[in-house]
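User: I'm designing a mutation panel for FXL18 protein and want to avoid disrupting the core. Could you give me a predicted structure to guide residue selection? Please restate the sequence first so the numbering is unambiguous.

Assistant: Good idea. Sequence first, for numbering, then the predicted structure tokens:
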Amino acid sequence: QEVVSEESEEESNGVNLMEFSDEILLHILSYVPCTDLVLNVRRTCRKLATLCLDKSLTHTVLLQKDYKVNKDKVKQLMRDIGKEIYQLNMAGCYWLPSSTIDHVTRCKNLVKLNLSGCHVTSLRLSKMLSTLQHLRSLAIDVNPGFDASQLSSECKATLSRVSELKQTLYTPSYGVVPCCTSLEKLLLYFEILDRSREGFMLSGQLMVGESNVPHYQNLRIFYARLAPGYVNQEVVRLYLAVLSDRTPENLHAFLISAPGSFAETGATKNLLDSMARNVRLDALQLPKAWINGSGLLQHLKFNNPFYFSFSRCTLSGGHLIQRVINGGKDLKSLTSLNLSGCVHCLAPESLFRKAEDDIDSSILESLVVSCCNLRHLNLSAAHHHSSESIGNHLCQLLSRLKHLLSLALPVCSITDVAASVEKPPTTPNLVPQTFGKKVRIGIPTYPRNLGDQANQKIESSVFWALMGSLRFLETLEIIGSSFSSAMPRNEPAIRNSLPPCVRAQSVGDSEVAAISQLTYLQSLTLAQLPNILTGSGLVSIGLQCQHLRTLSLANLGMMGKVVYMSALMDMLKHCRCLRDLRLEQPYFCAGAQFFQALSHCSSLQRLCIVSRSGTLQSDAVMSFMASCLEVIMCHMFMGESLTVCKNLQQSIVRSFQAERPALNVVIFPLLHEDLTEVIRDVPMRHLDEITLFKSRVAEEPPNLWW
């Protein structure tokens, strides 16, 4: 009787979820995927049945990373709440059959629709858009076989009212751009390959009969991102040709992201001259060849700029201060700045300067003072060496940017000047950075808590202080200035890597431990940190950074042995929120112990391992896939034979594809000659977000799309 009375007392004192106010319950329900709300939660009780259909929950439906959704769920969802949906995001739902798109026609009131990464034919697109008369924002892919002549008049009428268009091109085409006569925002992603699967060279000429008169008169934002390849450059020039004839008066953001060399032509020069005369910009990004050696920046006018990217340009710090920052008067509005690969941007002149020379701290100080509201800053892929002047270290100056949410730095920029001068590049305990004979270093030991780390590291170091001052940082990238991934885009795997910068030789475990001060860290990238001896700092990050969702580690410590494996396995046991893990390290052994530790990451969805001469245990991989039910992407590029890789890939697909509709598995020898053919079949969402290594800080303007 006493036990029963105690239990009843606990029940009476307990909190019943249904007693919360509707406002609180709606806030809680907003974190539940819409498919679960409509198909499951609302069937539990009458109150939840009403709340789950509240307009605040059905107005916007996000399916883009709901990897458990299938065709039947989408069909039922559209049948139940289709008329209540105003914004629908199905970006990257590559696993859904093209017939799924037919059910979108039930959403008669749609205003915004994102179908990037979905399989949509010309006829299906025409049928769907013919019923969406209120549509104003659209994102689609244009694949080989797309035929604009199959679009009905009703479809074209809908497109004529669309003001925002995002178009990913896998074939030379204007897509639906000529039909969109009211465009204000145009985003173009060029993913056209130079060769067909059969090996034939492709042409950048558009299909016969396509209209070549896009309507840009109302355009406010023009953005183009090009994958490597000359065909992409040819096609984007056709899109720009109309702009060069008449520049839209309301244009305020002009952005072109092009890798490698993208030469300026007479038409593009006319376009830039027209922009300098007629428009005032808020966002700017141009190919490096269009800026290098020209006085363009001196003539362009800016209004309230919020985004600049001068990635890989030879722009000097003197020009940056004089022509862009304008003496520090006009840049308070700037929130995102990309200076990745801009090797001279912190030096007064670039003519007689070596890339490894010390930076001019006064230029960085002017930048920090002028752009005091920066939230995203990328200084990677360059040698930014601080001088010995007290108080002028790069880390000390950056610590003034209290609003930073994401930051990318080269490894050599975070070292203490005194330490790098006093400490030789290699120490008796540091194994040479080569692929030569392996050196036995014994079982690594490392401190198990942050207190021990602090005792090892002088906390007055400039990087430790920087991490302590940026407590709200969510994304951090520390990348070696000479690092290059073994997984390039359209070429065979890289076999040799450049040695790290001499200044970076002292950066190791203690610097990694300093990162653990970032309580709200969500994404971390560490590449080419040569002085990692045990990986002890990783354990501290696992313990302290409980919001970490994305982790990318590449070429840490010695190259002939994974010296941080024990620490990594300890770290993974604490990463309950980790969703994406990318590891790139020669001689990586993906064995039973590693996958057992990785199984603690219960939220893990995507795994990518790139390892020259790396090995894997098939049984361990299968056990891991069976225990981690959320994993829908497994990419491994190792040193195993083609037979081993194919057998394991087929086993995973056979065992788990039925339960996980979005499952994408690629297991392939890293140095195989057909690697590029395998890569081209990887869904763009995974390829762009995790499989290919790149710096992502300030890669695009914030909130470019939803």
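For picking mutation sites, this is relevant: The CA atoms of residues 245 and 414 lie 47 Å apart. The mean pLDDT is 89.
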